Amino acid sequence: MENVVLLEIIIGLILAQTLFLVVLIRAAISTLVEEIAQLDVSIAEALRSIVENVNLEGIEPPNPLQMLLMKLVEGHLASRPIEARVIPGRSADGKFKSEKPLSAD
Questions:
Q1: Distances (CA, A) of 29 to 25, 34, 59
Q2: Which of 3, 10, 43, 73 has the fewest CB atoms nearer than 10 Å to its CB?
Q3: In whole numbers, what is the pLDDT of the chain averaged over residues?
Q4: Domain locations in the chain?
Q5: Residues whose CB is less than 8 angstroms from the CB of residue 62 and which lie 6 or more positions away in sequence, other chains included
Q6: What is the spatial distance between Cα 72 and Cα 79, in angstroms, rounded to a whole number?
Q7: Contact 82, 89 (CB under 8 A)
Q8: For residues 87 and 70, what is the distance between their CA atoms, to the nearest angstrom?
Q9: Please, are residues 60 and 51 in contact by the beta-carbon 8 Å criterion?
Q10: When comparing pLDDT for 73 and 95, which is higher?
Q11: C-alpha angle 59/65/70, rounded to 5°?
């Protein structure tokens, strides 16, 4: 009979600790969410301040040749998508292996 009472007390303590941890974790998550929201606001304010106060007087716009080159590169990338392919010769851990044996020179 004493073992049953002792077991019930232990189970009760475990349940109380579990409940306490759940409450503690929920409070920590709530605090973390609030801090992340405040950080987001702070970052947005800092970026807005930088954009408003930046001095663009010394920066010259791109010349027409640079613009033409940029358009050519954009058109080339848009017309031909980059194709990905699997390169054979990887080991089981994903590292590349040499296709030909290295000489002992």
A1: 6, 9, 45
A2: 3
A3: 85
A4: 1-55
A5: 70
A6: 11
A7: no
A8: 31
A9: no
A10: 73
A11: 85
Strand partners, 21: none
Give the predicted TM-score (pTM) of the model. 0.43
Are the CB atoms for 90 and 96 separated by under 8 Å?
yes
pLDDT of residue 25: 97
Residue 90: phi and psi, rounded to 5, are -95, 145
Average pLDDT over residues 74-88: 75
Given a cut of 60, whether residue 105 has pLDDT beyond it is no
* Structure tokens belonging to residue 14: 């475990």
Q: Which two tokens stand for residue 69?
A: 């080159």
User: Do residues 96 and 89 lie in contact, with contact meaning Cβ atoms separated by under 8 Å?
Assistant: yes
The tokens for 29 are 């998550």
Q: Which amino acid is at 73?
A: V
How many angstroms separate the CA atoms of 71 and 36, rounded? 39
98 versus 70: the higher-pLDDT residue is: 70
